[in-house]
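User: My collaborator and I are trying to settle a disagreement about how two of our proteins should look. Neither of us wants to argue from intuition anymore, so we agreed to look at predicted structures for both before our next call. Could you fold the first one, then the second, and keep them clearly separated?

Assistant: That sounds like a sensible way to settle it. I'll keep them separate. The first protein:
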Amino acid sequence: MTSPGLIALDNGCRGAAAGLLLMIAAVFLRHRPAEFIRAALAGAGAASAILEAPGFPSQWHWASLPLIALSSGTPVVFWLWARVVFDDDFVFRPWHAGVWAAAVGLGLTVSYASIGGSAATAINRALMLANLGFGMLAIMQTIASWRMDLVAGRRRLRVAVLMGTLAYIAANSAANLSSVAALTWSSPARNLANALGLCLLAALAGWTLFRTAPPVRTLALEPAIGSANRLSSAAVRNDGRAAIEPALLGRLERLMTVERAYRREGLTIGSLAALMRLPEYRLRQVINEGLGFRNFNAFLNHYRIDEAKTALADDSQKDVPVLTIAMDAGFQSLGPFNRAFKADTGLTPSEFRRFAFAKTPSERLSDAPIRGVGELR
């Protein structure tokens, strides 16, 4: 027997989630159009909330096609959202759109095609496994780059995403298992669990909107850094946050430019914090808020690539293999070095060396990398 109280609570949760998600989607599209994946995630969640609401008019079957398309792609969009939020180097590829289109196609097939029997069961199982798979991929992305993340708010968001995704997967798996095993969990109860999951999705989307916006990527240095690798005596402030002590920045810069700590094999944020005699959280704050880096690997590669540029443009090292230069700078293999170098310069190491030696010595000297700690990556 259907409980009116459960249905009312279900509709209330769905209405609240849909309204909040649509508002968030509108804010993203109006003020941050480049961050369309966040708007897409919010829109997909709102579509799911509306479609699965008790009493949604069945006579709107064809008119609800856009909602079904948005809802069907939710697992893929959630995975891509995790990539965008937690991977600073992520770039959209055409195949990402292909994966989303495949998920939407499966969802529309289930809704509109006249398929029954074992074929319908197989498609529904494929969708359930896809939902589970993309949820697990989002969890893996959340965990994979956790240690390298220097942004405090984003690290807290990872905890929320991890716990929320696991709870959502567990609730839906329990609902599906209860259906298969003919257990006592009623359909309204399963729907309510799904509605509560959508409310959680809305809360995560709101957190993304208000807590993890990229900081203004400018630093004020007073007075300005006068020459390469020399620190100002003034405190560095990032986007109005508390000042970072110049002494800490000076110690860190000495470690990186004089002692060349970035060359150490297996250097981690923890081992660098030990060298600095600082708690790990404090070093993360210094690198992120004082220097503007959002990722520890980007911070290390800033110094490694500068050394590689100097070596590649050096007459005395023109016969040294690129691999040797990469290893000397702290990279463990050629592939990551080539990718990081091209991302920084737009050229491969070999192209950079060829262009460097096509210039006169004075031109090479003027083009040599001169970076202070305030330059962002």
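The second protein, kept apart from the first:
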Amino acid sequence: MKTMHFFIMVAMAAAFAGCATVAPNELLNARSAYQTASQGPAQQLAPAELHKAHDALNLAEQSFRKEPDSYKTKDLAYVAQRKSEQAGAIGAIAASKARKDSANTDFQTKQSELVLQGKKDLSDSEKRTADAQAENARQAALTSAKDKSDADYRMQQAAIAQGKMDLNDAERRAAGIQAELEKQAAQKQAELDKQVALQAAKDKSDADILKGQQDLRDSEKRTADAYGELAALASLKEEQRGLVLTLSGSILFRSAESNLLPQARVKLDQVAKALLAIRARNLIVEGHTDSQGSDAYNQSLSQRRADAVRDYLVQSGYPADHIQSRGQGEGSPIANNTSAEGRANNRRVEIVIEREK
């Protein structure tokens, strides 16, 4: 692949040297976009898309050599630029997904080890707790027996010394001793119960953390898969305002109309399904037209088309309070309006997926 790039650059340099006409900006942009895509992950992860971009750039270069100043050269260069940008985006998304899959595998392995260690620690803790309870019970029994023996001895000595014993007083003293022993035993049991409760609370907190981490991984995977589906459906490009999904107007509407075509509903069903797999983001649906017709007419037509796409996405389940529509008229062309292909590219609908704040 690197060798092929080298020969391409040599051929391009030769073409520049042999041509006295300065290359148009569209062709310069197409060359730059292809160089950027070929040096990125698309080389390994999206070779088919990169090959398409390469073929498109060759067509533009050939046209430039034959007709340097023609609109055909500029249009072919624009097509090559878009295909290079699309190859770069698909490669970047595939690389991101691969990194996340690898990280998830490592995380799952580490979490399994932590869970096994946690179970072992819990088993050891339960055994220590049981042993402590048994020892406390044994010590309580020995203390009780000793205290009873001491009390009996004292009562016998008092009876010998005094010749008599008040039986009621002896019973009250014995009852007091018994109550004290029971109080101490209750305090020890309360302490053990507290330790068991603390351990149970810790186990529950650990389980909640593991569940939250798993939910986050699942959400990130769904988001990556959804972006991959969107990139496969239409042109997906990262811009300052967010991710921009560009849908060709020719598959959505008839000329000068704002009613969705049957095939447009199929395409929008696929787009809505992918968008709903992502945590709700704010969307802006922008309608664009070519330069044919008056400014006022194109502004109105672009707004109606943007409204039609927005309403269809809302009907498909996307939250209405997270999506708005804007008509941009003919004021934001992406191609030259002097050719049929350029006008077709300008008649488009862009769905802007805003960044999370």
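Some points you might bring to the call about the second protein. Residues 14-19 have pLDDT under 50 and may be disordered. The longest strand covers residues 242-248.
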